[in-house]
Design goal:
Strand content: 25-35%
Oligomer: single chain
Structural class: alpha+beta
Distance between the termini: 41 Å
Order of helices and strands: HEHEHEHHEEHEEEEHH
Radius of gyration: 18 Å
Number of helices: 8
Low-confidence stretches: 80-89
Shape: globular
């Protein structure tokens, strides 16, 4: 574990955990709807819309960022590399970064997962992170792949949960699948602009909760 990074993470987001659903685990957050209405996987306009929304929201957060921290959480099993290829799975930090940054990827933590009955090691949850610039990150490719998480027959999908951290604004961006994404933070003013600018994209189910915080 990188103790300096872990200390920074705890100081920046005290008592907060990078667990999904992120929106319900942070005191301040916005939840956006991406793929609406669902028209079926054979309708390309469904995926075009969710990609456009995801990219617009990402750029609204990170357009002026000098650095971004990308964190991934992966459940590693005993699957062989061939089996991962057959499932059309790709990994973020090895495929969407400029090559010079791949060597800078660090392991944040590894948590073993044992079978409850046999105590056999089944795998482990591994988290990694890297600091890079927006220009060195194919964020559009990552967001597109997340959108295909439940549709690997159409495009390459991701096996990881991906969190993008904006350090100055203290914002975390997490797209969970084609349905939507969460943007959370520690400072209300950092999220206020997004609330007003993209109000029509907010998830209606949680709109009352967001209005109570941001409708000022």
């Amino acid at each position: 574990m990188n103790h300096d990074f872990n200390q920074w993470l705890e100081q920046t987001f005290p008592q907060m955990k990078l667990e999904v659903p992120l929106f319900y685990n942070f005191p301040l957050g916005l939840r956006f709807e991406l793929g609406v209405p669902y028209r079926g996987i054979d309708d390309p306009t469904y995926f075009e819309q969710l990609e456009q929304r995801a990219i617009s929201l990402f750029e609204a957060v990170f357009a002026e960022s000098e650095q971004v921290c990308v964190m991934t959480f992966t459940y590693q099993t005993a699957l062989s590399d061939i089996e991962h290829i057959e499932r059309n799975e790709v990994q973020v930090l090895e495929n969407y970064l400029q090559p010079e940054y791949v060597s800078q990827v660090s392991i944040h933590s590894e948590q073993p997962d044992y079978d409850e009955d046999t105590a056999e090691l089944m795998g482990y949850i591994q988290s990694k992170y890297v600091w890079c610039t927006i220009g060195d990150l194919d964020y559009a490719g990552i967001l597109k792949a997340i959108g295909y998480t439940d549709f690997p027959e159409r495009e390459a999908s991701l096996v990881e949960r991906v969190f993008f951290i904006e350090p100055k604004q203290e914002i975390i961006f997490h797209m969970y699948d084609d349905r939507g994404l969460d943007i959370v933070g520690m400072q209300q003013e950092s999220l206020q602009r997004l609330y007003h600018q993209y109000y029509d994209w907010l998830l209606r189910y949680d709109l009352e909760k967001m209005n109570q915080v941001f409708s000022i």
